[in-house]
Amino acid sequence: MSGNVIDDYLNDLDRRLTGARRDRRMVLAEIGDGLHESVEHFLARGFSLPQARAAAIREFGAPALLAADFAPVNSSKRINRYGRGFLMIGPLIGILWGTAALLGSFAAVPWPLTVTGLVVMAVAVMIGAPFTAVATAATGRMSRWLRMETRLAARALVVTAVVALTVDTILITTLATVVALAPQGVVVLPVALGALASLTRIAMATASIPRLGPARALTS
């Protein structure tokens, strides 16, 4: 215990808040300012300092209830950031790997496997792109026109993350096989950049799934 019930209140709220660290800090700063203003208000009314602090806390309500009020907002911000990230890196990955393929880096792969891989990735794009676009739009500036529950947007983005993991795992596995069997045909620059972009998206997708967990569980 800090000896200051305001600090204890804010620490408790911090433990209960969801979302990115910077969003939680903004909420804590906003609530902290409001609490201190409320304390000053009660002091001006003749309350003692302990009484004023207790009254301010009662006015703001339980940390659990306050955190629940902010959960949809902070979760929407996190969904939007991940969504924009997936939307930006997706086309880049397609361009880099497509360039590598056009330059003959995957010529050693048997054509039935190439066709199968292209079909899988086409289906993945057809699934992942709309899910990502809708989830991002519904949690960004277009949210006033496109209504979607936060939990549904989070679940849509988890689908995107799973699709991205599948596609990038296939690409990296294919590259590793080609490098092992026919390295002479690999064009280094686009392949290296494509692999780096895919590994970046794998890391982002892997991190996003557990972080979107609280948003997926929201009931409103």
What order do the helices and strands follow? HHHHHHHH
Tell me the total number of β-strands. Answer: 0
What would you call the shape? elongated
Query: Number of helix segments?
Result: 8
Instruction: Give the termini distance in whole angstroms.
Output: 33 Å
Give the strand content. Answer: under 5%
| Poorly predicted ranges | none
Q: For the CA atoms, what is the radius of gyration? A: 24 Å
- Structural class assignment: mainly alpha
Largest β sheet strand count, sense and barrel closure:
none
Mean pLDDT: 89
Helix content: over 70%
Q: Which key phrases capture this entry?
A:
mainly alpha; 220 residues; 8 helices
3D architecture notes:
The radius of gyration is 24 Å and the shape is elongated. Helix content is 80%, strand content 0%. It is mainly α and 220 residues long. The protein is built from 8 helices and no strands.
Describe the secondary-structure layout:
Layout: H1 5-16, H2 21-44, H3 49-60, H4 63-102, H5 111-138, H6 150-181, H7 188-211, H8 213-216
